[in-house]
């Protein structure tokens, strides 16, 4: 088999078979295929596309390129949740302890943030002492003992995806549905869950900017799940506005704790609770309405908050942060972002708000950037809210005094104020069931 012929075949719009996909992935990972040939094939895929079978095969082969976590020793059905990323998206921190408190094991491997989107692992590491680097045995043992563990992805989980994504990133071949879907789902398959709930974000702060493209991606990933024996459903949620009010690591942990105390922002609570209910439904413990009631009860009874405290303590963190927020890292500088004219917040360019948080120190521009856990933004007003001159729209937190002016400039670009009120959009825009049917 020759790489030249595989490139030629896809260039001409023909279907690649499993052997050809396996040859490409295996030989490229073994450094027997040069970058220029791999880039040529990726561009051919980008332009010509892949069908459902090709996409499923690509996903499975990438999932098999490294370690596959075996969760079979954990009793019960293991349901994973994946978000395509956004600003203020701390839903995992809320839904994981809720689902675990309802008796469904949560074995969650999460990632770090890069660019304007935050990462669950960075947020958890803002808790003093919390350990996210666990061996596979530690990870599984934690789930067996307390029903929940959240850890960083292992270094050898779907390594083919890491290598191919790095090449896609520099060859303008990122935005292809098959390549995006296979990248996400290869890591989910390798993580070992029986069933998967996808939170596909759409809007200015999301990877997919339009509802149409978000639905296409959601359907593609659901189909991959179906074709690889993993029951998968998807929820399309709005990311034209940050989720919740907190953007930044320790700020988001505090907001998640508040939500588990049933005091968090309504938008964050609604999305997190709905995703938790979908996970419970997929685990088979009841219909959706019954699962929504179980979610509400887990929070109102305090069981979900207790489970989060148990998770923190079990992974070396100081669980006292739940009652004493002063134990989190504290910033040196705090600045109010003041409204300069009356009106209504018409829109928020969410990616710009994420970038403002990044320059304050809450995010990373490269993999080696150091995170400031205390940095970030707390929004007092959001899209649709009435504002008056002198109102504090947001508070900025940082240890970099020189970053404040750049962050303010980004917020000036992000926040649009108009004279007329602006209707708020629904947060949950669509649901795609395991058969790929869309329900609004």
From TrEMBL:
GO biological process entries = pyrimidine nucleobase metabolic process; pyrimidine nucleoside metabolic process
Q: Which UniProt keywords apply?
A: Glycosyltransferase, Transferase
Question: SUPFAM superfamilies under this entry?
Answer: Nucleoside phosphorylase/phosphoribosyltransferase catalytic domain, Nucleoside phosphorylase/phosphoribosyltransferase N-terminal domain, Pyrimidine nucleoside phosphorylase C-terminal domain
Pfam families from the UniProt entry? Glycos_trans_3N (PF02885), Glycos_transf_3 (PF00591), PYNP_C (PF07831)
List residues of the Pyrimidine nucleoside phosphorylase C-terminal domain: 344-418
Q: Which GO terms describe its cellular component?
A: cytosol
Q: Which domain of life is it from?
A: Bacteria
- What's an example of a GO molecular-function annotation for this chain? uridine phosphorylase activity
The catalytic activity of this protein is classed by the Enzyme Commission as 2.4.2.2
Q: Which SMART domains match?
A: PYNP_C
Enzyme class, first EC level, given as a word: transferase
Q: Which reaction does it catalyse?
A: thymidine + phosphate = 2-deoxy-alpha-D-ribose 1-phosphate + thymine; uridine + phosphate = alpha-D-ribose 1-phosphate + uracil; 2'-deoxyuridine + phosphate = 2-deoxy-alpha-D-ribose 1-phosphate + uracil
What Gene3D superfamilies does the database record attribute to this sequence? Nucleoside phosphorylase/phosphoribosyltransferase catalytic domain (3.40.1030.10), Pyrimidine nucleoside phosphorylase-like, C-terminal domain (3.90.1170.30), Transferase, Pyrimidine Nucleoside Phosphorylase, Chain C (1.20.970.10)
Family note: Belongs to the thymidine/pyrimidine-nucleoside phosphorylase family.
Job of this protein: Catalyzes phosphorolysis of the pyrimidine nucleosides uridine, thymidine and 2'-deoxyuridine with the formation of the corresponding pyrimidine base and ribose-1-phosphate.
Among NCBIfam families, the record links this protein to: PRK05820.1, PRK06078.1, Y_phosphoryl
How would you summarize the oligomeric state and partners of this protein?
Homodimer.
Write down what this protein is called: Pyrimidine-nucleoside phosphorylase
């Amino acid at each position: 088999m020759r790489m030249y012929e595989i490139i030629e075949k896809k260039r001409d719009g023909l279907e690649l078979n499993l052997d050809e996909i396996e040859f490409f992935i295996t030989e490229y990972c073994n450094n027997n295929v040069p970058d220029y040939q791999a880039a040529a094939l990726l561009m051919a895929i980008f332009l010509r596309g892949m069908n459902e079978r090709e996409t499923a095969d690509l996903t499975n082969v990438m999932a098999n390129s490294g370690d596959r976590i075996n969760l079979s020793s954990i009793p019960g059905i293991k349901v994973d949740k994946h978000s395509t990323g956004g600003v203020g998206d701390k839903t995992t921190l809320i839904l994981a302890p809720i689902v675990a408190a309802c008796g469904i094991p949560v074995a969650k491997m999460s990632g770090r943030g890069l660019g304007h989107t935050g990462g669950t692992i960075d947020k958890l590491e803002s808790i003093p002492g919390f350990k996210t680097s666990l061996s596979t045995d530690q990870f599984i043992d934690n789930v067996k003992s307390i029903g929940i563990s959240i850890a960083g992805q292992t270094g050898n989980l779907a390594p083919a995806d890491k290598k191919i994504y790095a090449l896609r990133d520099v060859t303008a071949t990122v935005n292809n549905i098959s390549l995006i879907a296979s990248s996400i789902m290869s890591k989910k398959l390798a993580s070992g869950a029986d069933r998967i709930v996808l939170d596909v974000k759409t809007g200015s702060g999301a990877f997919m900017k339009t509802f149409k493209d978000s639905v296409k991606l959601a359907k593609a990933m659901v189909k991959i799940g179906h074709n690889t024996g993993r029951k998968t459903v998807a929820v399309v949620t709005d990311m034209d506005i940050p989720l919740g009010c907190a953007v930044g690591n320790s700020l988001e942990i505090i907001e998640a704790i508040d939500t588990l105390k049933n005091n968090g922002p309504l938008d964050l609570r609604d999305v997190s609770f709905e995703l938790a209910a979908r996970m419970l439904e997929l685990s088979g413990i009841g219909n959706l309405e019954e699962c929504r009631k179980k979610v509400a009860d887990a929070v109102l009874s305090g069981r979900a908050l207790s489970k989060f405290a148990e998770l923190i303590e079990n992974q070396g963190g100081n669980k006292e942060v739940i009652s004493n927020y002063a134990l989190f890292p504290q910033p040196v500088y705090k600045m109010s972002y003041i409204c300069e004219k009356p009106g209504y917040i018409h829109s928020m360019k969410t990616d710009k708000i994420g970038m403002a948080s990044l320059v304050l120190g809450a995010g990373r521009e490269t993999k080696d950037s150091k995170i400031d856990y205390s940095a970030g933004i707390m929004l007092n007003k959001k899209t649709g809210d009435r504002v008056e001159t002198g109102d504090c729209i947001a508070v900025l937190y940082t240890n970099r005094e020189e970053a404040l002016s750049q962050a303010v400039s980004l917020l000036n670009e992000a926040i649009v104020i108009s004279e007329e009120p602006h209707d708020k959009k629904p947060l949950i825009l669509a649901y795609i069931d395991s058969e790929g049917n869309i329900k609004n």
